[in-house]
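Hey team,

Sharing the Acyl-CoA thioesterase 16 run so nobody has to redo it. Sequence (426 residues) first:
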Amino acid sequence: MSDTVAPMLSVIPSRALVDENFKVVVENLPPGSPVTLHSLHQCEDKHYWEAYGHYTSNHRGTVSVTDDLSFGGTYTGKEAMGLLWSMRPVPGSREGLRLRKRNVCSPLLVNLSVYRGHVVEGFREQAPLASSLTERWYMAPGVQRIQIREKGVRGTLFLPPGPGPFPGLLDMWGGGGGLVEYRSALLGSHGYASLALEYFAPGEMKSADLEFNYFETAFNIVKDHPQVMPDKVGIFGLSLGAILTILLAAESSVVKPSCCVCISGNHLLPRGVTIKEALNMKSPKIRLDENNYEIWRDMGLPIPDDPTHKIDVGRINCPIMLVNGQDDQNWAAVESSDDIAQMMRAAGNLHLLTRLHYPDAGHLIEPPYTPHFRATKFVKDTKEKVILLWGGQTKPHSHAQEDSWKKILAFLEQNLYSSPTLKAKM
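Structure output:
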């Protein structure tokens, strides 16, 4: 490398929301130099995650991750955010890890470095040519985080900056349980009063936590909040949370959502069977792949013809968006989506349905630039620990996360805001 001017790595912006793009540029390299761009993050569980791409500097001695091709590494091609979405545990890490932000009041810190040559291992044993630290936030400045312990409901409410009133969201995650705040924090940063709902502890699914009125009460806590527009409240769910979203929209006489977003869900809940009973039904259709990862998708197949084995989606009377990956190995979400469309067509409410299907995307479709997790550890209600296969291929799954998030935000804005949103800035 040049002996006169040291290489310089810049990240713009260095501080941003997790769903915002950044621009990574290396300057002052000799023309035609092979270099490796590397990202490193230590998560709250102290595990290290990394991604890297191989580049060659142009005639000006510059590499731009946005504009230039990566010729190898954890991602290839022209991928502005590849240093985030292709992150994976460093070699030697435990199997089945999943990167999730627990403390949304602090940033996700990512160290970006440039190394001489096309490096594939041993990054932490080498001295980089230049480095830069970037902050990725779920919670924008001014967003309020409020613990909810009210009428038996447990969760965290995120309120956008300003006096409001704001449109509201009830935000529900899936069968892993626990209180998961990061998506609600990000929705709060986009102008929504979002309640991250906890409805059972990991591995401790209790019937009381899955009673229908628990979710109705949670929805009404959002609706009745003085800073929320009571007639502009939606529901957002992933996996089990999406099933509950469909159930509330179709069956509740109390909850009247303005719109619903359902990621990787289904409508298969037999009449007269409680949610807990349905989830605890032992299925001979669970199978193992060559790594002994559990595959659950066959449990939903074939989709039953008997309408008493399904939620009556013909009764849904608000706009609903279904987001699914076509390589979902946890649930037959695409087949379920097709059946939902048929049922709604027969009932005359198909005009309310928007469907997004993504080839080679898996079950865990998260906010953009979140690393792809094909299989992770999971604690069942029996306390048994297994590794579930979620599915998806890294690059198309990451594209699905980015594309669906933009379309979800546009859908929410169309159905919950009477005027365009003013997104909070870092």
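Residues 237 and 244 are 7 Å apart (CA to CA).

Ping me if you want the raw files.
A.
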